[in-house]
Amino acid sequence: MSDLLTGLNPPQAEAVLHDEGPLLVLAGAGSGKTRVLTHRIARLIGERGVPPWAILAITFTNKAAGEMRERIVDLVGPVGREVWASTFHSACVRLLRREADAAGLPRDFTIYDADDQARLMRQCLVDEDMDPKRFAPRAVLGQISDAKNRLRGPEELAAEAGSFSDEAVVRLYRRYQQRLAAAGALDFDDLLMVTVRMLEADEATRNRYQSRFQHVMVDEYQDTNHAQYRLVRLLGAPQDNVMAVGDDDQGIYSWRGADVRNILDFERDYPGAHIVALEQNYRSTGTILRAANAVVALNHDRRPKKLWTDAGDGEPLAVAGFRDEHEEARAVASEIDRAAAEGTRLDEIAVFYRTNAQSRAIEDQLVRRRIPYGVVGGPRFYERAEVRDAMAYLRVVANPGDVIAFTRAMGAPKRGVGPGAVAKLAAFAETHGLGIAAAVAQADMVDGLTAAQRRGLAPVGRLLADLDQAARAGLPFDQLVRMAVDGSGLRASLETEGTLEAQGRLENLDELISVAGEYQASSDDPSLQGFLDEVALQSDADTVDQETGAVTLMTVHNAKGLEFDVVMMTGMEEGTFPHSRSDTPEALEEERRLCYVGMTRARRRLGLTHAETRGFRGSREYRLPSRFLAEIPLSDTRSTGRSGARRTEAVMPRSAPGSRPGRQVAAPARFDQGDAVVHATFGEGVVTAVESRGSLVRVRFADDGTERRLMAGAAPMRKVETA
DNA sequence: ATTCAACGCTTTTTT
DNA sequence: AGCGTTGAAT
Fold first, then answer.
1. Which residue is closest to B1 in terms of CA–C1' distance?
2. A293-313 pLDDT per residue, tens
3. Is A138 near strand B, with its CB below 7 A from some atom of it?
C-alpha cells in the first residue's frame, strides 16, 4: 500500500492518490508518467476495491499496453491481467466483435489496412468513372480518413462540401463505404467511428459498458483525435472517472487527425478536473533538457512549463556537419564504436531520422562495420508482398466476402487469373447468390473463362475448401499457414525463381509460419479471426525490442515513449527536418515538437548531425543546417566538422516563433526557364524548369547530359545568360 | 487478357 | 530510388 507511494515525488503521489472524478496529468518528457499510471491503477484495485476488469487503460501501442499489464501484475498479482489495457483500435475491435449485432456488423468482419484501402479505392474510382490521376486514391482516402476521425459519414460530409472536388470525394466516400460493407470489412478509422456510433445509438449497450468501465485512463492524450475523444467521453460517463495523461509539447500526430485542443481543453470538457503537473525529469542530463526546452519554447501554441532536473549538466551536445549522407553515416558508425568502447551497450544507442528513406545510408555503414542493428519501421513484415499473399488465403477463409483478399489470392502465384477473370467470378457469385470463394469451386460453370484459367482455378477452389475445413477442425495456425503457402503454389513459384530475392521471400514465408505458431502458443483463446486481427493491428512500435544487443534505427515518430543512453539525430537540415512539406506555421510548430520528442529520448549523450548535400530521389540536393540547431543555446553544444551551430547562425537568422521556413531567408537568385548557368561542380547547363515558386530549379548539364534538381538559393551556381 | 518493359511521379510521419 | 501506371508483346 504505502509502498505504492515510495519513491514518488509529491505531484506523482498526488496523482496516484486521486480517487474519483476527472484527472489531468500534464506529464513532461521523462517525468515518470507510466509509473504514475500503473501505480494509480494498482491502488484502485488493491486499496479501493475496484475490479480490474472495470478499468480501461488506453495506450498508444500494443506493446505499451502489454508492458503496462505486466507492471500491474507485478504490483497486484495475476488479477491485474484482467485490466483492459490496449490501444484505441484494439479495444474497439474487441468491443465490436463482442457486440457485432448491436453494431450491425457481420461477426467475421475483416479489418482493411492502408494497402487494402488503396486497392478498394481504386475500384471505386473505376466505378465512378473517375481519373485516378486527378483523384489520387491516397489523397481521397486521406480526406475520408479526416472525415471519419471527425465522425462524419458521407452524408454529413456532403453537407460540408463546397467545391466540385469535395462533391467528388463525397461520391467516392459513399461508394467506398458500400464496397467496404459488401466485403464485410472495416478500415482503421471505421473501427473508432463505428464503435462510437454504436454506443451513441444503442442505449442498452452503452449502459452496459458505462457501468462496466468505472475508470477510463488514456495515455498520450495529446495525440487523440475527435473520434477517440468522443469514445472516452462516452465510456467515461456518467461518473467521469477519466484520467488523461499527456504533454502538449509532444503532440506529433495532427496529420492523422490528432487534436492538441483535446488536452488543452480538458478542464472545460470535464469541469472540476483535478490537474497535476509532473515537471521533474528523471531521464536526461541538464544540458540535454535545457537544449530541448530552448527549442520547444519557441512555439507559442503551448502551455508554458518548466521541466527541470537535479541531475548534473553532463556533456555538451555534439553538433557536426558533413559533406553528404555517407560521410554522416560513417561518423555515426564511428560514434557508435566509440560509445561501445566506453562500455555503452549497443541496445542503449539509437539513431533517429525524419524519414524512413534516410536509414539506408546508415544501414550501409553499419553493415560494413559489422555493427549489429535493428530498424523499426520501413517495410514491415506483414506488409511484404509474399506475406500478404499467403495471408490473403486465410483472409478469404475467415471472410469469404473479402474481395480484396480474394483478388490478391487469385493473382499470387501468377496463374493467368487477373482482374478480368475475378470480375467474372464475382458476377457469377452474385447471380447465383454464392460466396465468391464458392464460385471458384465451380469455375467450370463460369462463362468467359479460358481453359487455362479453369485449370488454374480448380486447385485453388479445393485449397480454399480444405483450408476452411482445417480451420473448423482446429488445425494449429502454423499448419494452416503452411497449407496456404504450399497448397497455393507460392512456395513452388519462389523456389523455381531461384534468385537471392526469392530466397529471402521464402524465408519470410517460413517466418510467417513460425509467427503463426507463436500466436497459437501464446494466445489465451486462439482463433483465426484473432490471429488476423493481431496481424492487422500490429504496429512498428510493437516490434521494438530494447534488449537485443543491437543499435536501434528509427524515425523520430517511432521514438516516442522510448529512451536511450546515447541518441544521434541525423539529417538535421532545412527541408529534411523540418520537413519541406511542413511549410505552414502550425506544421512547423509540430516539427519543432517532433524535434523536442527526439532530443528528450536521450539520457546521457545527444548528437545532432547534418549533411551539406543529400541524395534525394535519385538526384543530389543542397541542404542548409536545420534552424533547430540554431535554436539550441550555443553554450550547450560542441561543434565539429563542416559547420555546426555557429555557421548555422551566420547563414540563418534565429527564427521567430511561427516564422516561415528558411527558404525565403536565403533570397534565392531568380532563375527562369531557358537561362544558361554555370555550376561549380557540374559545369555549364540550361534551366529546364522552375519549381516550388522559384526555390527549386531543374538544370540539364552539358557535361554529362544529366538533369538535376537544385535549390536555387543554395546551389553554387550563377546565371551566365538570360533566356 | 495477362504479363512485361519503360516512363514518370512522388507520402513525411502511422494506428 | 522505387512504385505504379501506361503502352506493347505474348
1. A420
2. 999 999 987 888 889 999 899
3. yes
